[in-house]
Amino acid sequence: MPNANDMDLVREFALSHSETAFTELVQRHVNLVYSIARRCTGSDGDAADVTQAVFVILARKAAGLRPQTVLAGWLAETTRFTAACVQRTNARRHAREQEAYMQSILTDADTADAWARLAPHLEAGMAQLGERDRTLLTLRFYENKTGPEAAARLGIQEAAAHKRTARALEKLRKFFTQRGIELSAATIAGAVAANSVQAAPAGLAAAITAAALSGTAITTTAFLAATKTMTMTTLQTIAVTAALTVTIGGGLYAAKQAHDAQNEVRTLQAQQAPLAEQIQQLQDERDKATKQIAGLKAELAQNEKNNLELLKLRNEVTSSKRQTASQLMDANESWRNPALITNTWACRNFLETNPPQVRLLDTKYDRNWGGFAEDDSTQFDRFHNVISRSTHGWRGIGLGFDAKELVEFVYEFDRKETIYPTVMPAGRFDFIANLPQGSQAALQEKIRNRLGITASKLEISTNAYALVLHDLESPVYHETNMMAGVKIKYWVNVLEGLFHAPVANLSGLTNYYACDCNFWKPMKQSDDEFKQIVLSRIREQLGLELIATNLPVEMLVVEKVK
Q: Do 404 and 424 form a contact (C-beta atoms < 8 A)?
C-alpha cells in the first residue's frame, strides 16, 4: 500500500471504500493541503477546517477523477477554491485583520527574510499560473520531488520539466516584483522548497479520515457529526458550505461568469463608439499613403526593368561556376574512409592539405566510426616549450554520426550538458569542414538548413562545482602537448562523473598539461576515498582545487528551426 501511487489508492477507495487506502492518501497529502489552506486563510483553525473540507470533497469525488489526474495538483487547486469560498463568506470579519497584516508585511519588507515576504502572496502568485505550471511547481517545491520524479509523474521529458520549471519560476519572480518583492528565481525556489509545507496539527489526519469515511453520500449533518472531536468554529460550517458549493455551485458560478462577460462586452462596445470617427480618419490617411506607395513602386519597377536581363545573365554565370565547382568537389570523397577517421595524424594532415570545403551528406555506414576535430594548433620542442601556434580556427571530420552526436560534436557540448526538447531527425550523416576560418559556423548553418534544427546556449543557475587555481601567485601546472599531457577538459569531465554535478572550469587553463591521470578505482576503495585521492592529485600536480558553489551553468538547448 505505501508503494502504490495516488490514483491507484483513489480507485481502490472509490471501488471498495477502503479506509486503509483513504488513510494513506490523507497521510501523504495532509501537510500539503494544510499548508496551502494556512497561507490562504492566515489562521491555524481556519486551515484545519478547510483541510477537512478538501478531503471530504475528495471522498465524494473519488469515483469521478480521471486516471491521469495528478492528485497533488488537484488537491492544491481544490484547497485554494475552498479557502476562497471561506474568505468570501467571512470577508467582513477578516478585512481589517488582513489589511493590518499586509501593512505590517510592507513595513517590515526591508528586514524580513525571503519566506516571510513571499508567504502572504505565494498562493495568489500560484493562482496566476497555468494549470500545468501550478502542478509542476507543486510537485517540485511543495512535495520536494526531484526533476526526474516530477517529469515522470507528468509524463513529460526531464529536460522539458526543467525548462518549464525555470519559466514558471520566472513568472513568479515577475509577480512578486510587481508587489515590491525583489528576489531572484533561485531564492524564490529555495524559500518555497524549504518552507512551503509545514506539519499539520496532531490528530488532524485522523479527524479528517473519520469525517470523510462517515458515509459515501456526505451531507451537511454527517460532516458536522464527523468533526465533533474538534472545537466547532464558524469556519467549519463555512467549510461544509464550500464543499457543497464545489458540487452544486458550478452551474450558478458559470451563469454569473457568462452574465459578467456580457456586461463587459456592452461596456467595451460603448467605449468604442467615440473612437469611430478617429478610426475613419486614420483609415483615410492610410488609403492615401497606400496610393502614394503604389505610385513609387510602379516607378521603381520601370527603372529596374531595364536591368532585369543583365541580372539574369549574371545569375546564370554565377550558377554555372558554382555547379562546376560543386561537381569537382563531389567527385572527391576520399575523406569518407573509416581508415582515415581512426588515424589522428592522417585526419590532421587531410584537413590541412585538402581543398577547403564544408559538406554534410547522408552516411554510407550503419554505425558511428568516430570523428576528429581540432582548434588552434600548438607546436612544442622536445622540452615541451611552445615554439609556434597557428590560428586556423575549428576544423573537423566525422562518419556515421546520428543527429544528436552531430550536434554535440559540432557545438562541442557533452550529452549531459545538452537539452533536447524536440524530436531529432532520423538517419546518420558524414561531414567535413576545413575552411581557413569559420568552419564551425558554416557546418552549424548546414545542420540548420538541411536538418531543420538549431542550438543555442542557455545559462541555468544550479548547484555545481568550480575548478579554480589554488594559488594564483605560485602556479604548479606544466603546459605540454597532447602526447605528454591531458587537456583540462578531460579533468572537468572526470570530476563531473565522480561528483555527479556540473563542474565549471574557472581556472583559465585550456591546453594540455602534464599530470598523472589514472582514474581506475580499486575494488576495496570507497567512492569518498577515491574522490579525495583525485582532488589531492589535481592540487599537487596542477595547483587546482574544487569548490562547491551555485553557478549559472551553460547548457545547449537544441530546437527545431521556427
A: yes
Q: Taking the alpha carbons of 189, 190, 192, 194 in that order, is the dihedral positive or negative?
A: positive
Give me Rg for the CA atoms of the chain: 33
Residues 55 and 147 in one domain: yes
pLDDT tens digits in sequence order for the chain, 562 residues long: 667 889 999 999 999 989 999 999 999 999 999 999 999 998 898 899 999 999 999 999 999 999 889 999 999 999 999 999 888 877 766 555 554 444 444 444 433 478 988 889 899 999 989 998 999 999 998 888 898 998 999 999 989 999 999 999 999 999 999 999 988 988 898 888 888 777 777 777 777 877 777 654 444 443 433 344 333 443 444 444 444 344 434 444 444 555 566 666 567 666 666 666 677 778 888 888 888 888 788 877 776 776 777 777 777 755 655 554 444 444 578 899 999 888 888 888 999 889 999 999 999 899 999 999 887 665 544 444 555 555 567 899 999 999 999 999 999 888 878 888 889 999 999 999 999 899 999 999 999 999 999 999 888 888 889 999 988 777 888 888 877 788 888 888 888 888 888 888 998 888 888 887 666 677 777 888 888 888 888 888 889 999 998 888 888 999 999 8
- Which residue segment(s) compose the domain that 341 sits in? 333-451
Whether 77 maps to a domain, the answer reads yes
CB 401 within 8 A of CB 428: yes
Does residue 186 lie within any of the structural domains?
Answer: yes
Residue 30 contacts residue 51 (beta carbons within 8 Å)? yes
Q: In angstroms, rounded to a whole number, what is the distance separating the alpha carbons of residues 211 and 222? A: 8
Q: List Cα–Cα distances, 353 to 346, 366, 436, in angstroms.
A: 10, 28, 11
End of a domain among 248, 270, 292?
248
User: Model pTM?
Assistant: 0.36
As for how many domains the chain has, the answer is: 3
Relative to beta strand 395-402, strand 503-505 is unpaired
N-terminal to C-terminal alpha carbon distance within the chain: 47
Give the separation between CA 276 and CA 284, rounded to whole angstroms.
Answer: 13
Cell numbers representing residue 456 in the block: 543555442
Residue with cell 548553418: 445
